[in-house]
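Ligand: magnesium ion. Inputs:
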Amino acid sequence: MPENNVAVRLRGLRKSFGPVEAVAGVDLDIADGEFFAMLGPSGSGKTTVLRMIAGFESPTSGTVELGGRDVTRLAPFERDVNTVFQDYALFPHMSVMQNVEYGLRVKKVGKAERRDRALEALRSVRLSGFEARRPSQLSGGQRQRVALARALVNRPRVLLLDEPLGALDLKLREEMQLELKEIQRQVGITFLFVTHDQEEALTMSDRIAVFDQGRIEQVGTPAEVYERPSTPFVAGFVGTSNLISGEAAKAVLGKEGTYSVRPEKLRLVLDPDAAVGADEHSATGTVAEVVYAGAATRFVVDLDAGGRLIVLQQNLEVSSMDVTGLRGGRVRLVWNRRHEFAIAS
Ligand code: ADP
Ligand code: MG
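Predicted complex:
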């Protein structure tokens, strides 16, 4: 990454709380203008990393650089970042306009400029016309956007977002995922986003860092992390892991090691004796479970060679009656060899 394009650089970042090592040595470069997600289960150290970047927490060791400047010892207000929290933390007694203007007022920005910038920030989150409302008169999604406008109005180099959609219900969350992405593209600010939701990270990000136990397991684009997970943890946390290992790997693939094939790459063939192509691998088994989910069906298949694989099939021509009847049936699973990948075990 060219030096002048690095928005955030973390080197050897660690944080211990007494005996708990919350962050256990993180190295990371995030480019200017990136939409970057830190993804991991609860307790994996994501929030602590974000708080160290914001300056709310000081590292036990290691450094934080913003735009090429070492800010490790600087106070939060001396750093060119803003944070959006899950609970929004809006001032309930202030109007939307006053909430958005607040940061500029503290910085003693003049009235006219304050107003212009607040209106622009509200426009960028599509809340023009809501200036006079109180937070209590807004929906959850609108409150979230006010929180976003309140951060954007400062024009930070980096916007830190800690599970900002966590309080919204599923449908609204999906809408806001697309909207956040659009807003980010428009304003061009680096977004560093924390989530435990793999789908959210895959949908929104340019790149993802997958966290486990205070460490980064893998950094890559959504496609890289999903299609080429580098560890069993990543394979299992980002998607369904579908592992073939040990004796099953020898019998089915003719090689040693641990391999994975994603559920949507598997084809379910109802004739277990069906022939397969030269570039394909296959395994016979018994359908243990059928989960009909409207658009698609999930089959759990116990392999004769040992282990089980999940198959995801679109319901192109079948109904729920057809698929549920397959429970207990003998099948063959077929996949193209290029969709199976080795993972370190
Ligand atoms: P995440 O955001 O991924 O859920 P956190 O960064 O919040 O994870 O927490 C990582 C670990 O550090 C957890 O074990 C958590 O209990 C611990 N931790 C976080 N903040 C503190 C604190 N202020 N005091 C003690 N332990 C903490
Ligand atoms: Mg957290």
